[in-house]
Amino acid sequence: MKSVLTIVSVQEAYDDLLRRTLAKLSCELARLIYLASLRDYNTAKYHHDGLSDRFSPELAAQALALAHRDSFAKVAALPLQDLVKQMEIYLQSSHEQHIDVLRAWWRLEPYRMAIPMNANPTVAALFISNVKLALAILPQVLRAALPCPSAASPLP
Amino acid sequence: MMPITLSIVSGVVLTIFLWRLWKNTHVSEAGLPFDANLSDEAVASCPGEFVAALFSPRDLEFVSQFDSEPLKELFLRERKAVARAWVRSTARAVHQVMQEHVRISRSSQDLDIGTETGIYARYVALQAVCAFLMLSIGLAGPVRLRHLSLYVYRLSECLDHAHSALKAATETKELQGA
Protein backbone atom coordinates (compact mmCIF):
# COMPACT_ATOMS: atom_id res chain seq x y z
CA MET A 1 0.00 0.00 0.00
CA LYS A 2 2.84 2.34 0.91
CA SER A 3 4.63 1.71 -2.39
CA VAL A 4 1.43 2.45 -4.37
CA LEU A 5 1.09 5.73 -2.50
CA THR A 6 4.74 6.52 -3.25
CA ILE A 7 4.26 5.86 -6.98
CA VAL A 8 1.17 8.08 -7.03
CA SER A 9 3.04 10.81 -5.15
CA VAL A 10 6.03 10.61 -7.50
CA GLN A 11 3.63 10.91 -10.43
CA GLU A 12 2.01 13.94 -8.76
CA ALA A 13 5.41 15.54 -8.21
CA TYR A 14 6.36 14.75 -11.80
CA ASP A 15 3.15 16.32 -13.14
CA ASP A 16 3.72 19.36 -10.95
CA LEU A 17 7.28 19.73 -12.24
CA LEU A 18 6.07 19.35 -15.81
CA ARG A 19 3.28 21.92 -15.43
CA ARG A 20 5.05 24.57 -13.37
CA THR A 21 8.61 24.41 -14.72
CA LEU A 22 9.37 22.18 -17.68
CA ALA A 23 6.46 23.33 -19.86
CA LYS A 24 7.85 26.88 -19.76
CA LEU A 25 11.19 25.90 -21.28
CA SER A 26 11.72 26.47 -24.98
CA CYS A 27 12.45 22.92 -26.18
CA GLU A 28 13.17 19.35 -25.09
CA LEU A 29 16.93 19.96 -25.17
CA ALA A 30 16.50 22.92 -22.79
CA ARG A 31 14.47 20.69 -20.46
CA LEU A 32 17.20 18.05 -20.54
CA ILE A 33 19.97 20.54 -19.74
CA TYR A 34 17.87 22.09 -16.97
CA LEU A 35 17.10 18.71 -15.37
CA ALA A 36 20.75 17.63 -15.56
CA SER A 37 21.74 20.88 -13.84
CA LEU A 38 19.59 19.92 -10.83
CA ARG A 39 21.74 16.84 -10.21
CA ASP A 40 24.62 17.05 -7.75
CA TYR A 41 27.97 16.41 -9.51
CA ASN A 42 29.33 14.28 -6.69
CA THR A 43 26.37 12.23 -5.52
CA ALA A 44 24.15 12.28 -8.65
CA LYS A 45 21.19 13.17 -6.39
CA TYR A 46 18.61 15.66 -7.61
CA HIS A 47 17.59 18.79 -5.71
CA HIS A 48 14.76 21.26 -6.35
CA ASP A 49 13.72 23.50 -3.48
CA GLY A 50 10.21 24.35 -4.70
CA LEU A 51 9.33 20.74 -5.48
CA SER A 52 10.84 19.55 -2.17
CA ASP A 53 8.68 22.07 -0.27
CA ARG A 54 5.51 20.97 -2.02
CA PHE A 55 6.20 17.22 -1.71
CA SER A 56 9.33 15.94 0.08
CA PRO A 57 13.03 15.94 -0.87
CA GLU A 58 12.88 12.18 -1.62
CA LEU A 59 9.77 12.40 -3.81
CA ALA A 60 11.13 15.48 -5.54
CA ALA A 61 14.40 13.67 -6.27
CA GLN A 62 12.53 10.65 -7.67
CA ALA A 63 10.30 12.85 -9.83
CA LEU A 64 13.34 14.75 -11.14
CA ALA A 65 15.18 11.51 -11.92
CA LEU A 66 12.11 10.22 -13.79
CA ALA A 67 11.77 13.48 -15.72
CA HIS A 68 15.47 13.41 -16.57
CA ARG A 69 15.29 9.84 -17.92
CA ASP A 70 12.19 10.69 -19.98
CA SER A 71 13.71 13.83 -21.40
CA PHE A 72 16.98 12.09 -22.24
CA ALA A 73 15.15 9.26 -24.01
CA LYS A 74 13.28 11.83 -26.13
CA VAL A 75 16.39 13.82 -27.09
CA ALA A 76 18.56 10.75 -27.72
CA ALA A 77 15.90 9.35 -30.08
CA LEU A 78 15.78 12.52 -32.20
CA PRO A 79 16.98 12.28 -35.80
CA LEU A 80 20.04 14.46 -36.40
CA GLN A 81 18.03 17.05 -38.33
CA ASP A 82 15.61 17.50 -35.41
CA LEU A 83 18.46 17.69 -32.90
CA VAL A 84 20.04 20.49 -34.95
CA LYS A 85 16.70 22.34 -34.84
CA GLN A 86 16.48 21.82 -31.06
CA MET A 87 19.98 23.22 -30.63
CA GLU A 88 19.08 26.20 -32.77
CA ILE A 89 16.05 26.92 -30.54
CA TYR A 90 18.17 26.38 -27.43
CA LEU A 91 20.81 28.82 -28.70
CA GLN A 92 18.20 31.45 -29.50
CA SER A 93 16.61 31.14 -26.06
CA SER A 94 19.94 31.33 -24.22
CA HIS A 95 20.38 35.10 -24.91
CA GLU A 96 24.13 34.51 -25.21
CA GLN A 97 26.33 34.98 -28.25
CA HIS A 98 25.84 31.86 -30.38
CA ILE A 99 29.53 31.54 -31.07
CA ASP A 100 30.36 31.59 -27.33
CA VAL A 101 27.87 28.83 -26.55
CA LEU A 102 28.99 26.73 -29.50
CA ARG A 103 32.64 27.15 -28.61
CA ALA A 104 32.03 26.18 -24.97
CA TRP A 105 30.02 23.13 -26.01
CA TRP A 106 32.65 22.13 -28.54
CA ARG A 107 35.59 22.46 -26.16
CA LEU A 108 34.16 21.53 -22.75
CA GLU A 109 31.56 19.00 -23.90
CA PRO A 110 29.10 19.92 -21.10
CA TYR A 111 26.41 17.82 -22.81
CA ARG A 112 28.10 14.71 -21.35
CA MET A 113 26.65 15.79 -18.00
CA ALA A 114 23.16 15.56 -19.49
CA ILE A 115 23.26 11.75 -19.50
CA PRO A 116 21.24 10.11 -16.71
CA MET A 117 23.01 7.78 -14.31
CA ASN A 118 21.75 4.44 -15.65
CA ALA A 119 21.43 5.26 -19.32
CA ASN A 120 22.10 2.43 -21.74
CA PRO A 121 25.77 2.84 -22.84
CA THR A 122 24.93 2.62 -26.56
CA VAL A 123 22.12 5.19 -26.25
CA ALA A 124 24.52 7.47 -24.33
CA ALA A 125 27.18 7.01 -27.01
CA LEU A 126 24.64 7.79 -29.76
CA PHE A 127 23.53 10.93 -27.90
CA ILE A 128 27.11 12.21 -27.50
CA SER A 129 27.89 11.43 -31.11
CA ASN A 130 24.75 13.19 -32.37
CA VAL A 131 25.44 16.31 -30.30
CA LYS A 132 29.01 16.43 -31.67
CA LEU A 133 27.65 16.17 -35.21
CA ALA A 134 24.98 18.79 -34.53
CA LEU A 135 27.70 21.14 -33.25
CA ALA A 136 29.62 20.63 -36.49
CA ILE A 137 26.49 21.27 -38.58
CA LEU A 138 25.09 24.24 -36.64
CA PRO A 139 27.55 26.91 -37.88
CA GLN A 140 26.54 26.06 -41.45
CA VAL A 141 22.84 26.22 -40.59
CA LEU A 142 23.27 29.52 -38.75
CA ARG A 143 25.30 30.93 -41.63
CA ALA A 144 22.45 30.09 -43.98
CA ALA A 145 19.78 31.52 -41.66
CA LEU A 146 21.52 34.63 -40.36
CA PRO A 147 24.27 36.37 -42.32
CA CYS A 148 25.88 37.31 -39.00
CA PRO A 149 29.69 37.06 -39.07
CA SER A 150 29.96 36.01 -35.40
CA ALA A 151 27.63 33.04 -35.89
CA ALA A 152 29.28 32.04 -39.10
CA SER A 153 32.89 32.00 -37.93
CA PRO A 154 34.37 28.50 -37.86
CA LEU A 155 34.79 26.68 -34.60
CA PRO A 156 38.29 25.90 -33.32
CA MET B 1 58.73 -20.80 -56.56
CA MET B 2 56.33 -18.10 -57.73
CA PRO B 3 53.19 -19.56 -56.06
CA ILE B 4 55.05 -19.83 -52.71
CA THR B 5 56.17 -16.19 -52.87
CA LEU B 6 52.66 -15.14 -53.82
CA SER B 7 51.22 -17.11 -50.89
CA ILE B 8 53.66 -15.51 -48.44
CA VAL B 9 52.96 -12.00 -49.74
CA SER B 10 49.19 -12.65 -49.61
CA GLY B 11 49.54 -13.97 -46.06
CA VAL B 12 51.50 -10.90 -44.96
CA VAL B 13 49.02 -8.52 -46.63
CA LEU B 14 46.07 -10.34 -45.02
CA THR B 15 47.75 -10.26 -41.59
CA ILE B 16 48.44 -6.52 -41.88
CA PHE B 17 44.86 -5.92 -43.04
CA LEU B 18 43.36 -7.89 -40.14
CA TRP B 19 45.73 -6.26 -37.64
CA ARG B 20 44.75 -2.78 -38.82
CA LEU B 21 41.08 -3.73 -38.65
CA TRP B 22 41.51 -5.04 -35.10
CA LYS B 23 43.51 -1.96 -34.09
CA ASN B 24 40.81 0.29 -35.48
CA THR B 25 38.18 -1.52 -33.45
CA HIS B 26 40.36 -1.59 -30.33
CA VAL B 27 41.05 2.16 -30.44
CA SER B 28 37.38 3.07 -30.79
CA GLU B 29 36.56 0.97 -27.71
CA ALA B 30 38.73 3.26 -25.60
CA GLY B 31 36.64 6.23 -26.68
CA LEU B 32 33.41 4.94 -25.15
CA PRO B 33 31.66 7.31 -22.76
CA PHE B 34 31.24 4.62 -20.11
CA ASP B 35 33.10 1.72 -18.67
CA ALA B 36 30.45 -0.94 -19.21
CA ASN B 37 31.65 -2.79 -16.11
CA LEU B 38 30.71 0.17 -13.91
CA SER B 39 27.18 0.49 -15.20
CA ASP B 40 24.28 -1.39 -13.58
CA GLU B 41 22.53 -1.67 -16.90
CA ALA B 42 25.56 -2.64 -18.96
CA VAL B 43 23.95 -5.90 -20.03
CA ALA B 44 20.53 -4.35 -20.74
CA SER B 45 19.81 -4.40 -24.44
CA CYS B 46 19.60 -1.19 -26.39
CA PRO B 47 15.97 -0.33 -27.34
CA GLY B 48 15.09 -1.35 -30.90
CA GLU B 49 14.27 2.19 -32.01
CA PHE B 50 17.84 3.26 -31.26
CA VAL B 51 19.31 0.33 -33.18
CA ALA B 52 17.12 1.26 -36.15
CA ALA B 53 18.17 4.92 -35.86
CA LEU B 54 21.85 4.03 -35.56
CA PHE B 55 21.88 2.06 -38.82
CA SER B 56 19.30 4.22 -40.62
CA PRO B 57 20.22 6.14 -43.82
CA ARG B 58 18.13 9.14 -42.69
CA ASP B 59 20.91 11.01 -40.85
CA LEU B 60 23.43 10.31 -43.61
CA GLU B 61 21.01 11.80 -46.16
CA PHE B 62 20.69 14.90 -43.96
CA VAL B 63 24.47 15.27 -43.60
CA SER B 64 24.96 14.75 -47.36
CA GLN B 65 22.79 17.83 -48.04
CA PHE B 66 25.59 20.06 -46.76
CA ASP B 67 27.93 18.85 -49.47
CA SER B 68 30.87 18.87 -47.06
CA GLU B 69 33.35 16.01 -47.23
CA PRO B 70 34.87 16.64 -43.73
CA LEU B 71 31.37 16.65 -42.23
CA LYS B 72 30.49 13.41 -43.98
CA GLU B 73 33.75 11.84 -42.80
CA LEU B 74 33.06 12.96 -39.23
CA PHE B 75 29.56 11.49 -39.45
CA LEU B 76 30.80 8.13 -40.74
CA ARG B 77 33.58 7.97 -38.13
CA GLU B 78 31.16 8.74 -35.31
CA ARG B 79 28.50 6.30 -36.50
CA LYS B 80 31.01 3.50 -36.98
CA ALA B 81 32.29 3.96 -33.41
CA VAL B 82 28.77 3.89 -31.94
CA ALA B 83 27.72 0.96 -34.14
CA ARG B 84 30.77 -1.02 -32.99
CA ALA B 85 29.98 -0.13 -29.37
CA TRP B 86 26.48 -1.52 -29.86
CA VAL B 87 27.75 -4.75 -31.45
CA ARG B 88 30.25 -5.20 -28.62
CA SER B 89 27.66 -4.62 -25.90
CA THR B 90 25.18 -6.94 -27.65
CA ALA B 91 27.77 -9.72 -27.94
CA ARG B 92 28.70 -9.22 -24.28
CA ALA B 93 25.05 -9.23 -23.16
CA VAL B 94 24.31 -12.36 -25.18
CA HIS B 95 27.36 -14.07 -23.69
CA GLN B 96 26.23 -13.21 -20.17
CA VAL B 97 22.69 -14.44 -20.88
CA MET B 98 24.13 -17.71 -22.20
CA GLN B 99 26.40 -18.12 -19.16
CA GLU B 100 23.43 -17.70 -16.83
CA HIS B 101 21.36 -20.01 -18.99
CA VAL B 102 24.00 -22.76 -18.77
CA ARG B 103 24.14 -22.30 -14.99
CA ILE B 104 20.35 -22.68 -14.66
CA SER B 105 20.26 -25.58 -17.13
CA ARG B 106 22.75 -27.56 -15.03
CA SER B 107 20.37 -27.59 -12.08
CA SER B 108 17.21 -28.12 -14.14
CA GLN B 109 15.69 -31.62 -14.03
CA ASP B 110 13.58 -31.67 -17.20
CA LEU B 111 15.44 -29.98 -20.03
CA ASP B 112 14.06 -30.19 -23.55
CA ILE B 113 17.01 -31.13 -25.78
CA GLY B 114 15.39 -29.61 -28.88
CA THR B 115 14.83 -26.24 -27.19
CA GLU B 116 18.33 -26.21 -25.68
CA THR B 117 19.92 -27.07 -29.04
CA GLY B 118 17.92 -24.24 -30.64
CA ILE B 119 19.09 -21.76 -27.99
CA TYR B 120 22.71 -22.82 -28.40
CA ALA B 121 22.44 -22.59 -32.20
CA ARG B 122 21.06 -19.04 -31.87
CA TYR B 123 23.89 -18.14 -29.52
CA VAL B 124 26.56 -19.42 -31.93
CA ALA B 125 24.86 -17.68 -34.87
CA LEU B 126 24.65 -14.41 -32.91
CA GLN B 127 28.30 -14.43 -31.92
CA ALA B 128 29.32 -15.22 -35.50
CA VAL B 129 27.17 -12.42 -36.94
CA CYS B 130 28.46 -9.99 -34.29
CA ALA B 131 32.06 -10.83 -35.25
CA PHE B 132 31.17 -10.34 -38.91
CA LEU B 133 29.44 -7.03 -38.14
CA MET B 134 32.47 -5.77 -36.20
CA LEU B 135 34.65 -6.30 -39.24
CA SER B 136 32.10 -5.12 -41.81
CA ILE B 137 31.16 -1.85 -40.07
CA GLY B 138 34.66 -0.52 -40.73
CA LEU B 139 34.56 -1.56 -44.37
CA ALA B 140 30.96 -0.97 -45.46
CA GLY B 141 29.65 1.53 -42.89
CA PRO B 142 26.60 1.07 -40.65
CA VAL B 143 23.92 2.09 -43.20
CA ARG B 144 24.65 -0.84 -45.52
CA LEU B 145 24.43 -3.26 -42.60
CA ARG B 146 21.00 -2.14 -41.45
CA HIS B 147 19.16 -5.40 -42.13
CA LEU B 148 21.88 -7.51 -40.54
CA SER B 149 21.94 -5.34 -37.43
CA LEU B 150 18.16 -5.58 -37.05
CA TYR B 151 18.47 -9.35 -37.49
CA VAL B 152 21.03 -9.41 -34.65
CA TYR B 153 18.70 -7.31 -32.51
CA ARG B 154 15.72 -9.61 -33.10
CA LEU B 155 17.79 -12.77 -32.55
CA SER B 156 19.24 -11.43 -29.28
CA GLU B 157 15.69 -10.59 -28.13
CA CYS B 158 14.57 -14.16 -29.00
CA LEU B 159 17.47 -15.63 -27.04
CA ASP B 160 16.68 -13.39 -24.10
CA HIS B 161 13.00 -14.43 -24.13
CA ALA B 162 13.86 -18.13 -24.37
CA HIS B 163 16.25 -17.76 -21.44
CA SER B 164 13.70 -15.78 -19.40
CA ALA B 165 11.10 -18.52 -19.99
CA LEU B 166 13.45 -21.22 -18.66
CA LYS B 167 14.45 -19.01 -15.72
CA ALA B 168 10.80 -18.34 -14.79
CA ALA B 169 9.92 -22.04 -15.09
CA THR B 170 12.89 -23.06 -12.89
CA GLU B 171 12.03 -20.45 -10.27
CA THR B 172 8.38 -21.55 -10.21
CA LYS B 173 9.42 -25.17 -9.69
CA GLU B 174 11.82 -24.16 -6.91
CA LEU B 175 9.01 -22.26 -5.17
CA GLN B 176 6.62 -25.20 -5.54
CA GLY B 177 9.26 -27.59 -4.21
CA ALA B 178 10.05 -25.38 -1.19
Which features does this protein show?
heterodimer, A: 156 residues, mainly alpha, 0% strand, elongated, B: 178 residues
The overall strand count of chain A is 0
Low-confidence stretches of chain A: none
Q: How many β-strand stretches of chain B?
A: 0
Percent range for β-strand residues of chain B: under 5%
Tell me, briefly, the overall form of chain B.
Answer: flat
Indicate how many domains the architecture of chain B comprises. 1
Largest interface (CB < 8 Å): A-B, 24 and 32 residues
Helix content of chain B: over 70%
Reported for the largest beta sheet of chain B, the result is: none
- Terminal CA distance of chain B reads 74 Å
N-C termini distance of chain A: 57 Å
Q: What's the SSE pattern of chain B?
A: HHHHHH
Shape of chain A: elongated
Protein structure class of chain B: mainly alpha
Q: Give the SSE string of chain A.
A: HHHHHHHH
Rg measurement of chain B, Å: 21 Å
Low-confidence stretches of chain B: 26-32, 38-43
What do you see in this structure?
The complex is a heterodimer of chains A (156) and B (178). Chain A is mainly alpha-helical. Chain A has eight helices and no strands. Chain A has one domain. Chain A has helices at 2-20, 28-37, 49-54, 57-76, 80-94, 98-108, 121-145, 149-152. In chain A, helix 1 crosses helix 4, helix 2 (28-37) runs antiparallel to helix 4 (57-76) and helix 5 (80-94) crosses helix 7. The radius of gyration of chain A is 17 Å and the shape is elongated. The termini of chain A are far apart. Chain B is flat and about 65 Å long. Helices cover 80% and strands 0% of the residues of chain B. In chain B, helix 4 packs antiparallel against helix 5 (113-140) and helix 4 (69-107) packs parallel to helix 6 (146-177). In chain B, 22% of the residues are buried. Chain B is built from six helices and no strands. Classes of the chains: A mainly alpha (156), B mainly alpha (178). The interface between A and B is medium-sized, with 24 and 32 residues.
